[in-house]
Design a protein that fits this description.
Layout (H helix, E strand, L loop, with lengths): L4 H17 L12 E6 L7 H16 L4 E6 L7 H10 L4 E5 H4 L18 H8 L2 H12 L2 E3 L4 E5 L1 E4 L14 E4 L3 H9 L3 E4 L5 H6 L5 E4 L1 H6 L8 E3 L5 E9 H6 L2 H25 L3 H7 L3 E3 L4 H9 L2 H9 L1 H11 L4
Parallel strand pairs: 1-2, 1-3, 7-8, 7-9, 10-12
Antiparallel strand pairs: 3-11, 4-11, 5-11, 6-9, 6-10
Helix pairs in contact: 2-11, 5-15
The structure holds (2S)-2-hydroxy-2-methyl-3-oxobutanoic acid.
The site of (2S)-2-hydroxy-2-methyl-3-oxobutanoic acid (X2X) has 8 residues, from loops.
């Protein structure tokens, strides 16, 4: 069939009129105007996933079904390294990633992981919801990605092993420690004189099970969700760094959303982050007992010696140089003087 121009214009006007008259569709996937993939590295049971699932439901309802966010948890779409590439190319539209791992692309996003910079959550949220977080998000923006305002909690990190408790930095000498793929993590565990191996979360359980490494470090909620108690015996409460997940969007995908839809997504993502932080705070009261019940043996080493080791090894001086004076003084505004 061939249309002349006049008929074509009439036909499309009719289609548009028909389109607006159609009933709102809530069905998942089909029918949504924007079907976006959101991927992450944690199991569905982790509050990061329960809260973002709620977020996706609210976004679907509030946009009248126009935005459908489909969640792919547990590294289903690949490792963090793979997912970061997919986010950049637009293969996935949303991704939550540790700032330390994102630093392979945007170096200054590692800053919140500087050893012993934060001593409590009050300071963490002041910094990350304040000027330090704003500075980091601006750096992310320059790399073609968009970071939502509120960072999700990944927690204060503790060290676990299958061999013996870590009681002092001496126990880390030569120790085969898994670290996520990130220059800061590697540098920190080198400063402890251990033998760090960069392994993505998707390979972590197997790496511990097959003894490629003897230990790893993660927050208690992560150790719980990833079932690392099945392949680890000891947990040493070092609180050596705090880490969070930035909720990232591919910029082109983000800008394809009309502004009113962007507002709905951003508001719900930020609300999910705040709720997820509260979930982790609540879990912190019970997760240690839960892990102990699974056979994990806890100890609480004095952390001064770990911090001294980083200081004497030049770790703080090195990272001040790498991150730059502006970033460093922003961090110290919250952490107090480091190094
Ligand atoms: O890979 C990890 O250890 C994890 C799950 O904590 C992060 O995403 C940084």
């Amino acid at each position: 069939m061939r249309f002349n121009r006049r008929q074509f214009v009439t036909a499309s006007a009719a289609a548009t009129a028909l389109g607006t008259a159609l009933p709102t569709r809530f069905a998942s996937g089909q029918g949504a105007e924007f079907t976006y993939k959101y991927a992450n590295n944690l199991p569905p049971s982790h509050p990061l996933n329960t809260r973002t699932k709620e977020m996706a439901d609210k976004v679907r309802a509030e946009t009248g079904g126009r935005v459908d966010i489909q969640i792919f948890p547990a590294s289903q779409l690949g490792s963090d390294t793979d997912m970061l590439s997919q986010l950049r190319s637009g293969g996935i539209e949303f991704f939550t990633l540790s700032g330390l791992i994102l630093s392979t692309l945007v170096p200054q996003t590692a800053i919140n992981g500087i050893g012993f910079a934060f001593s409590d959550y009050d300071t963490v949220w002041k910094a990350m919801d304040g000027e330090l977080g704003a500075f980091i998000r601006a750096q992310i923006g320059k790399a073609g990605l968009v970071a939502m305002d509120r960072i999700f909690d990944n927690g204060f990190r503790q060290m676990t092993t299958s061999t013996r408790p870590i009681t002092s930095p001496d126990d880390l000498r030569g120790f085969k420690m898994r670290v996520p793929v990130s220059p800061l993590w590697t540098s920190m565990f080198k400063a402890f004189d251990s033998a760090p191996a960069s392994i993505n979360a998707s390979e972590l359980y197997t790496a511990l099970q097959t003894k490629i490494v003897d230990g790893q470090e993660n927050a208690l909620t992560g150790i719980w969700a990833l079932k690392l108690y099945e392949v680890q015996k000891y947990c040493s409460m070092t609180n050596h760094m705090w880490d969070g997940f930035w909720f990232l969007a591919n910029r082109r995908a983000w800008e394809r959303l009309p502004e009113d839809l962007r507002t709905i997504v951003a508001r719900n993502v930020n609300a999910a982050a705040v709720a997820q932080r509260e979930d982790l705070a609540k879990m912190s009261g019970t997760v240690q007992q839960d892990l102990a019940a699974k056979g994990i043996v806890f100890n609480t080493p004095k952390t001064d010696a770990f911090r001294d080791k980083l200081r004497s090894g030049g770790f703080y001086a090195e990272w001040k140089g790498k991150l730059g004076d502006e970033a460093w003084s922003l961090l110290e505004r919250y952490s107090g003087k480091l190094g």
